[in-house]
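Deviation from plan, reported transparently: magnesium ion complex.
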Amino acid sequence: MSEKMFHGVPASGGIEIGPAYLYRSQGMTSLRRELRPEEVPAELKRYEEALVKTRRQIVELQGRAKQKIGDDHASIFGAHQVLLDDPLFTEEVAQTISAQLLNAEYVLHEALGKFKTIMASLDDEYFRERGGDIQDVGNRVLRNLMGKGEKEDLKKLGREVILIANDLSPSDTVTLSTDVIKAFCTDVGGKTSHVAIVARSLGLPAVVGLQNATAEIRDGDLLIVDGNKGLVLVNPSAQLVDQYRRLKENYAAFQKSLEAFKTLPAVTPDGHRVTLAANIEIPQELDEMERHGAEGIGLYRTEFLYMNRVESPSEEEQFNSYKELATKTGINPAIIRTLDLGGDKFLSHMNMAEERNPFLGLRAIRLCLKQPDMFKIQLRAILRAAAHGPIKIMFPMISTLSEVMESKALLQECVEELKKEGQVFRAGVEVGVMIEIPSAAVMSDILIQEVDFLSIGTNDLIQYSMAVDRVNESVAYLYDPLNPAILRLIQMTIDAAHKAGKWVGMCGEMAGDPQYVPLLLGMGLDELSTSISVIPEVKKVIRMIPLAKAKEIAAAALKVRTSDEVFDIIRDGVPAELRSILF
Ligand code: PEP
Ligand code: MG
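Because the crystal trials were delayed, the predicted structure below was used instead.
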């Protein structure tokens, strides 16, 4: 019973404590895989082995059944053995694998589906029953193909569990019983994965992208899932459990109290108005925005549009997505960030070269500038959508002025092209850059001359300033937003923008941490952009901290030497009522 901690992606907020349940099943929707011709023989062999294994299992089952229920009833398994010789299994699947270059699971699943539809349409009871038997045998072959054991039935568990899975298909997630499942944790996935979307809509905490949770967590291990921070604690001490129980209770009470804030403006008690916008990763979140009281979009991550598909999205497809976004934010601005691929975000269809240090490699704007044709498709789509609403554009991972100039030049090229083509578009779209590399923060007074706004991406700014991989658990102690070095870079950026008479926001996760909000307001940020689930909470903090007090906190915080001292300054500086909520 060793204590362990996993860091993942906080996909859905909330805290849960309970036993782990390893879910081994897999939905059928995620099964399709295309094969290269040379993979076919191995696939056929794998299929053949699954058939052999299935036959062996049926013989075994028949033996056990004979002992338990007698010869007569056990004969059904004899019939199942015969069914395995049905051409559906012996010929059809194998032929389709070879002809269509598709994996065995998918082909069998499709064949069974078609067979089921035909059987269901028949009046003859004998054939309908035989259809059911074929399905049973087919599902057994499928489970063997996927290396799965018997089908698990969560409903039979009769106790509340935290579900641990390698991945969950949409059908898995929605059909799982939420009566017994209190939280989801998966090895794979990011905020855009379906499990994250569904977890959010079910209101269950979820942490995804845990990488090796299924390998390291055992059935029955006691878990704490912190969906707010993306943490999973395995077999925690009694003291930690107590601490998290309290956090959970407080969180529930706090969430309830937040309902009232959704429709109120983000204004401090002394009348200072801040823009509180949303970070959007998936289009489904657009519908949730208003319900959470967001004033527009501070960061629209466009990567999701390019993922889970075989080719990049066309200009038309992107145009439609961005137009929908413009329509849904209404009069509020929507900042579309151009493609930020690379680092830990890869696409199979783009054939990106493997890099030794992907976070320091061909990522985001660097990749886009290297592939201007692909980049221009996105820029054109954004310019066209901007004719339908207050869209702004933002370039990620800027390290130098020349990258800004090159990006702007490409944007201008797109303007000229669209003009020539007589397309409907908006020419004067506001342009901003993300400040997430120290060189950009240091040069922010120069960069701001060329753009309309800056947005600080602390997720990367911390990573690059502290030389700490943002997804590496062993150096996580260095990943500290309150480190004075980070605060200086942030302040430098804010001051540069203001000196040029322009606005500056923050869209990194730091902006959505309520504890940091007083400090960030005092430092002078004009906009905070956070995931929608924390917006009401951040708004509550804004409405409780007078700007004058926040400024005092910021001034003091920028004078001290360590993050611990900064932390103390915030804790001691906020009004007592807010302190009891935040600390
Ligand atoms: C950031 O780096 O802070 C940011 C918002 O971008 P991303 O998390 O997508 O890298
Ligand atoms: Mg970033």
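The pocket of magnesium ion (ligand 2) is lined by residues 396, 436, 457, 459-460 (CB under 6 Å). We consider this an acceptable substitute for the interim report.
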